């Protein structure tokens, strides 16, 4: 994964030294359960997750440049919620952000950066994003980034005592991305 940058953020591979920053937000009950995973009870859990991120290399560490601190993660996964368009190059993204940094547009900034990279550098055809029905913050990011609603499914979350949830799936196509980009350019944005 190539390191990406925005005005305020750097998206880079995870490092072993990021464990404490991950634990800071992963131990907050406002974070994991909204993304489908349990609260981290100890640093060892966070260490195992960072090790997996390092091994898999499909999750960015979101670093706030002004603080040189990891404040979230943004995964770019080889999952395809819809197997029908087999000939399309697709990825699914998922993200979490430290609650201390909510409400500042940082996740929207990070997601837009990954969308741009996905369509312009990786030649993706389709990017998916889903969230659970109760996660209104993720819903706002999805809306601000131009994703289009596709469907809702019922799902059981095994990591959260088999909680039943509704997961809403959205996507953005390469054509939609370049169309929006052209419109924005015409409007001087």
> Which structural class do you get from the secondary structure elements?
alpha+beta
How do the strands line up in the largest sheet?
A: 1-2-3-4-5-6-8-7
Q: In percent, how helical is the residue content?
A: 25-40%
Helix count from the secondary structure assignment: 6
Main sheet attributes: strand count, strand direction, barrel closure: 8 strands, mixed
Run of helices and strands = EEHHHEEEHEHEEH
Instruction: Please tally the β strands and state the result.
Output: 8
Query: Please, what is the average pLDDT?
Result: 93
Rg (C-alpha, Å): 16 Å
Distance between the termini: 28 Å
Strand percent estimate? 25-35%
Features:
globular; 8-stranded mixed beta sheet; alpha+beta
Describe the structure.
An 8-stranded mixed beta sheet has the order 1-2-3-4-5-6-8-7, with helices on both faces. By secondary structure, the protein is α+β, with helices and mostly antiparallel strands. The chain contains 6 helices and 8 strands; from the N terminus they run E-E-H-H-H-E-E-E-H-E-H-E-E-H. Helix 1 packs across helix 3.
Secondary-structure topology with pairs:
Elements: E1 4-5, E2 9-12, H1 19-26, H2 32-35, H3 43-56, E3 59-64, E4 69-77, E5 90-97, H4 106-120, E6 126-132, H5 136-144, E7 148-157, E8 163-173, H6 174-186
Parallel strand pairs: 5-6
Antiparallel strand pairs: 1-2, 2-3, 3-4, 4-5, 6-8, 7-8
Helix pairs in contact: 1-3
Quick overview:
This protein has 189 residues and is of the alpha+beta class. The protein has helices at 19-26, 32-35, 43-56, 106-120, 136-144, 174-186; strands at residues 4-5, 9-12, 59-64, 69-77, 90-97, 126-132, 148-157, 163-173. Helix 1 packs across helix 3 (43-56).
